[in-house]
Amino acid sequence: MKTASEVQILKYQQSYYEELDNNQQNIRKLRHDMKNHLNVIHTFLANQETKQASEYLSNLSDEFATDQQMFCQNSIINAILNTKYILAKEHHIKCYFLIDIDNNIGIDSISLCSLIANTLDNALEASMQVPNISKRNISVKARCFNGFFSYEIKNTRDNTIIKKNGRIQTNKKDSESHGFGLKNIKDIVNRYHGTIEIAYTDEEFCVTTLIPL
Fold first, then answer.
1. In the prediction, which pLDDT does 176 show?
2. How many Å is the Cα radius of gyration of the chain?
3. Which pTM value belongs to this model?
4. Would you say 16 and 86 are in contact if contact means Cβ atoms under 8 Å apart?
5. What percent of the chain lies above the pLDDT cut of 90?
6. From the centroid of its chain, how far is CA 10?
7. How does DSSP assign the chain, residue by residue?
8. Greatest CA separation found in the chain?
9. How far apart are the C-alpha atoms of 198 and 180, rounded to whole Å?
10. What integer pLDDT is reported at residue 173 of this predicted model?
11. Distance between CA atoms of 44 and 18, rounded to whole angstroms?
C-alpha cells in the first residue's frame, strides 16, 4: 500500500507526463498543418496585409502555448516546480528557479518530493498574503556540489510569525493539519544528517538546507 507521499509523487508525475503528451500532440498537429498555416501567412504578406499576418501568427502562438517548462533534469522536481509555478502565476507571484540537479542525487524520491513541495507550499501561502502583488516573489536555488545537496528558498511575506519554545508555529486555523510542514522538512534534513537554517525579516522568509550525499 502506497503512502501519502508516494501517492503525491505519482500525481505530480502523472500531471507532468500528461502535459508532455499533450505538448507532443500539439507539435504533431502543428507540423501537419504547417504548410497550410504558411500559405495563409504568405497570402497576407503578399497582399501587404501585415496586421492580419501578425494577428494570425499571434493566434497560432497562443494555440500551441504551454505552461510546462523544463526547470531542471530531475523529473520529479521538474513536475513539482511546474505544478507550483502555475499556481504562483494564478496569484501573481513571480518565481525565480535556479536548479542544477539530475535524477540521481542520492536522496530518495519521497524525501526529495516532501522537501521541495512542503517548502514551496509554505512559500506560496505566505506570498499570497502580501497585499502588494508587485512584491510577491519566490526564489528557489538547488544544486549538487562537492558532495552536498544545497537548497535555498526565499519568499516575500506579510504574515505573522508565531514562535513557541523557540519553534515557529503555524498561524492557520486548522493547526493540527497544517503544523507538520516545517517539522517534516526538519525530519528529512536530520535523517540525512544535514543542516537547516531558517531566517526571516519583516518582508522575507528564507529556508536553507545542506545535505551530505
1. 44
2. 22
3. 0.69
4. no
5. 34
6. 16
7. ---HHHHHHHHHHHHHHHHHHHHHHHHHHHHHHHHHHHHHHHHHHHTT-HHHHHHHHHHHHHHT--------S-HHHHHHHHHHHHHHHHTT-EEEEEEE--S-SSS-HHHHHHHHHHHHHHHHHHHHT-SSGGG-EEEEEEEEETTEEEEEEEEE--SPPEEETTEEE--SS-HHHHTTHHHHHHHHHHHTT-EEEEEE-SSEEEEEEEEE-
8. 75
9. 16
10. 47
11. 36
Residue 190: predicted pLDDT: 93
Q: Which amino acid is at 83?
A: T
Grid cell locating 3: 503512502
Q: What is the DSSP string of 91-129?
A: TT-EEEEEEE--S-SSS-HHHHHHHHHHHHHHHHHHHHT
Mind listing the pLDDT tens digit for each residue in 131-187? 999 999 999 999 999 999 999 999 999 877 666 555 565 555 444 434 456 788 888
Integer Cα distance of 30 and 37 in angstroms:
9
CB atoms within 10 A of CB 38: 10
Which residue numbers in the chain have pLDDT < 50?
173-179
* CATH superfamily assigned to domain 68-212: Histidine kinase-like ATPase, C-terminal domain (3.30.565.10)
Structural contact between residues 103 and 75, judged by C-beta atoms closer than 8 angstroms:
yes
The Cα–Cα gap between 118 and 29 comes to 38
Closest CA to 121 of 162, 194, 186, 180: 180
